[in-house]
Amino acid sequence: MNIEVKNLCFAYKRQAELIKNISFRLARGSFLSITGPNGAGKTTLINLLSGSLKPTAGSITINDAPLQSYSIKELAKKVAVVRQEFVPVFEFSALQVVSMARTPYLGAFAFESEADQKAIADALEMTDTTCFADRALNHLSGGERQRVFIARALAQDTPILLLDEPTSFLDLNHQVKIYDLLKAAQLEQGKTIIAVTHDINLAAQYCDQILLLTGRSYISPVSQSNIQNEQNYYVGKTQDVFTQEQVEKVFGVKTFTGTVGQEKFFIPLGKFAKDTTQIKRKSNSIQSK
Amino acid sequence: MTESLTQTRLIIRLILFIFLLAAVMFVCSLIGTQKISLSSVLDGPGSTPGTNTDYDIFVRVRIPRIILAALIGAALAASGVALQAILRNPLAEPYVLGISSGAALGVITAVSLGSSITTRINMGSFGAGASISVFAFLFALGTVWLVWLIGHLAGGSGITSLLLAGVVVNAFFSAVIMLLISLIDSQQLRTTIYWLMGNIGEKDFSTLLTSAIFIMAGIFGLFTICQKLNVLTFGAQEAQSLGVNPRVVTFAAFALASFITAVAVGLSGLVGFVGLIVPHSVRLVLGSDHRQLLPASTFVGAAFVVICDTIARVIIAPAQFPVGVITAVIGGPIFLLLLARYSKKIGYQK
Amino acid sequence: MNMKKLFAIVAIVFFAVVAIIFLRHGSEISESTAKPALSKVEGMVVPRRIVSLSPNLTEIIFALGLGDKIVAVSSDCDWPAEAKDKPKTGSFWQPNTEVIIASKPDLVVCETFLQHNEAAQVLKRAGLNVLSLRVESINELFAAIRLIGQATSCLEKAEQLDEGIKEQLGQIREASSSLKRVKVLWVIQTEPVRVAGVNTFVNEIIELAGGQNAIAPTGDQYPSISTEAISGCGAEVIIQSAMGTQDMAKQQESAEKFWSRFANLTAVKNKKIYVINPDTVLRLGPRIGQGAQAVAQCLRQKDLGAITP
User: Using the beta-carbon criterion (under 8 Å), do C126 and B49 form an inter-chain contact?
Assistant: First the structure.
């Protein structure tokens, strides 16, 4: 299930253009991270990819067929979306929420078959949410709710997963668990995964491709001058996009970067960061810059 | 809510509800201002009319009222469930989008026209209520469509614009209604108020049959989109991601709910509170899964109105209260309790 | 299922429903605007059990000498005294069909407005004989008396009763014909002020008694009128119907107080304000002659005083 985005443009009503001419191609079984400053259009891009928003120009094709050519039901069998924090008005249990993932597959009188029940149970297990399947969504913590929505996306059994900050409320343990889960889905089931994240280290570790949106102009906290990015996005392999220069330019912060084994890391350095020119040598694999 | 809802489990529960409803209807049909005995009813009609009054009362007065009460309750409860789902608001109820003021306007128009025709042509009471029913139904339905139109022209398919359109239309119509009220005389006013307070009369069987077909068809239509309503409560974007077309489902639910409500209003005026508290109460006990909530509310709503109507008939016999008074007296306190419970949750709505 | 298809289906269903309703109710409407129904009543013997749902109809039945045949009446039937003791069928506005059926009547008499009409339909379906009468003018009163006479096989007595009333009214009309017309304002209620207009039977009585309605013809039968209109109407006599018959003196007092603000009216200046017992005047029944007499007295009375016929 490959995704191709060509010259995608989008602007909200009566606002400046937000998504400016973005093109990229994702082969089947890729794991892409969309990242960038606030307001750069990450959530908007997810909504465009899921079909909720219509682009003002350009095209999105899934498996060589344009997005609009899919009916809503067909698209739901291809793309599952995990959006940001949401609390429903009516009380539904976690189990009920995850069960809704099977809606595109249900017949006229809409009852889950055995296959559906299995998909639901598996999804609950994978996200570690079986223990509170009966609890109402409003009675769960933010992190637990997020896991339920991820379970729903998994139960939907789609070749493409779109996630908007899936781990923003999760503790370290669950952050790793979820990303491990997504990575396993990518490698073992060949799912194509696009995840918006603020954590560039996680993105660097797990994702093989990065889409770095540069967003609008901003005031650099270092130079206090107005910076306009010439390029509004960078896309490509992780190591190509996450260079220190590009990261620092896009986010407007100084970073301390290095590699641990083959995993790159970025540590942001603010005004009060201690002097990093002296690195205490803990292990030979740390190289300072 | 502990296990997922399977088809068998739901069917069993619904059969239970049906039995409950049948029992309620049966018991209430034996209660009234006159004492009648089941055995004399079963004896059948007398050889000449008027000999077995127990049978006559049972068949001509009790049964039509019970059936009508059940239909009204079912229609209003089902409509309430649907509207709460598409408006994503637990305080929504069948009359919120203009039906109440539309029906009131229809009734007053029919009543006013009646008298002016009477004085000019001297034709006797205009249409003995049948035309009032028709006017109430048509105006109610027309008003709802007006609200839908205004809501769409004003703000796309957002539910906020729909609600606002409803408020605007209600306000405007109320002004027109007040104008007409100041012009009609006391007998017409009495007729209007009597009509609007909600009352379950004794209709003939052909009217009951036609109405039953309409209402049950409408409720059945709602049954078929239950799962979609579940998904719709998460918002239009989420619904779309799960394969449900939000605009189509909202429109379908809206059309069906307003239709069955308009039929109910045409038959018996504005019976309040049923469409609001029955869905709530059922939701508290059985959860929000609409595949269960909708049919369960339908049966509970029917039983509720049957019981309220029986109380209305009996409590100040031989006079009787309009059923809307009893549903309000019982429903009002229940509503306050539910409001207290839900007021914290409303704050979360996006 | 896309929007256009759905919309089309809904529109078709809607129009089909409207068509069905109109086709069905069209016949019902024309039925009920036909002459007042007199179902299965011709060719009957004297009925033995009668139910009356209106106080004026009750009075008529008693006047025909059939009072002992009445088995139930509406709660506001209070004349003659025996009527008060009869079992009740609920209020005038809400007849209780169960009680009526249980009384096993062979004749039910009622009027033709909405609530009575609906009850009549139910009773007819239950197989009872129902006589629905429209009694909103003096002529309709005479017709009603005759119809009841016909239905109860006392046509002669009914015609006699009619004659009696006609004579009474005739006398009153004659007595006042030579005198000057007195402008009368007939007040139904004071908050807001509602008066009897020209198209009412009350007006017929006023004219019979030698009066003339102070209010010009209006569309409504009982319009509410503005303070200006009242000030300019030039009423020489104000007649106000009492609310119930308690505290007539008190009602008279508050009426005078209310009308004192219209000091320019002749009626107020000459203190010709009368609070009148509504039972004979506002009830189109056999005692209408007495009522007309009371009105005539009001018009000719030299000094004020509450009139009780």
Answer: yes
Query: Using one digit for the tens of pLDDT, what is the confidence trace for C226-264?
Result: 888 888 888 888 888 887 767 888 888 888 888 888 888
Domain-located, residue A113:
yes
B241 contacts A103? CB cut-off 8 A = no
Question: Domain for residue A238, yes or no?
Answer: yes
A235 and A259 together in one domain: no
Question: Given an 8 Å threshold on Cβ–Cβ distance, is B346 in contact with A75?
Answer: no
How many domains is chain A built from? 2
User: How far B13 CA lies from chain C's nearest CA (Å)?
Assistant: 31
Q: Which of B64, B124, B248 is the closest to C33 by Cβ?
A: B124
Domains and CATH numbers, chain C: 50-153 (3.40.50.1980), 178-300 (3.40.50.1980)
Distance CA(A9)–CA(C67), nearest Å, equals 92
Looking at the fold, whether A60 and A155 belong to one and the same domain comes out as yes
Nearest residue to B116 (alpha-carbon basis) of B128, B107, B126, B127: B126
- E-assigned strand segments in C200-249: 211-213, 237-241
Q: Which of C91, C97, C111, C123 to mutate to test the interface with B (most CBs of B within 10 A)?
A: C97
In Å, what is the CA distance from A115 to each residue of A102, A103, A120, C270?
A: 10, 13, 9, 96
Q: How many CB atoms sit inside 10 A of residue A288's CB?
A: 12
Q: Which of A86, A91, A117 sits opposite B4 (nearest CB)?
A: A117
Neighbours of chain B (3+ CB pairs under 8 A): A, C
Has residue A234 been placed in a domain? yes
Inter-chain touch C113–B191, beta carbons under 8 Å = yes
Instruction: Tell whether omega for the bond before C80 is within 30 degrees of 0, i.e. cis.
Output: yes
Q: Cβ of A109 and B234 within 8 Å?
A: no
Q: Is residue A248 part of a domain?
A: no
Q: Number of B:C CB contacts under 8 A?
A: 153
CA atoms of C278 and C240, how far apart (whole Å): 9
pLDDT at res. B119: 36
Domain enclosing residue A259, as ranges: 253-289
CB C258 within 8 A of CB C192: no
ipTM, two decimals, is 0.83
Say whether C33 and B123 touch across the interface (CB within 8 A): yes
Q: Who contacts A23 (Cβ-Cβ below 8 Å, separation ≥6)? A: A5, A6, A7, A8, A58
The CATH number for A39's domain is 3.40.50.300
Is residue A200 domain-shared with residue A265, that is, in the same domain?
A: no
Residues in chain B closer than 8 A to C104 (CB atoms): 50, 53
Q: Which residues lie closer than 8 Å to B215 by C-beta, 6 or more apart?
A: B71, B74, B75, B260, B263, B264
Give the gap in angstroms from C-alpha B337 to the nearest C-alpha of chain C.
Answer: 34
Q: Which domains does chain B have, with CATH numbers?
A: 59-346 (1.10.3470.10)
Residues A133 and A273 in one domain: no
Domain shared by A96 and A114, yes or no: yes
Question: Which position has the higher pLDDT, A49 or B285?
Answer: A49
CB-based contact B204 C115, cutoff 8 Å = no
The whole-number pLDDT of residue A218 equals 52
Q: Interface partners of C (3+ CB pairs, < 8 Å)?
A: B
Rounded distance, CA A269 to CA A256, Å? 7
Chain B residue with CA closest to A74: the answer is B243
Please tell me whether the overall predicted TM-score, pTM, comes out greater than 0.90 for this model: no
Let me know whether A186 and A286 are in one domain: no
- Torsion over CA: B126, B138, C22, B269 (sign): negative
B45 to B42, B60, C122, C124: CA distances (angstroms): 9, 11, 16, 15
Identify whether residues A237 and A262 lie together within a single domain. Answer: no
User: Which two structure tokens, joined as six digits, stand for A124?
Assistant: 């609950």
Same domain, A234 and A258: no
| A126-182: pLDDT as tens digits | 888 899 888 888 888 888 888 899 999 999 999 999 999 988 888 898 889 889 989
Which residues of chain B lie closer than 8 angstroms to A138, CB-CB?
345, 348
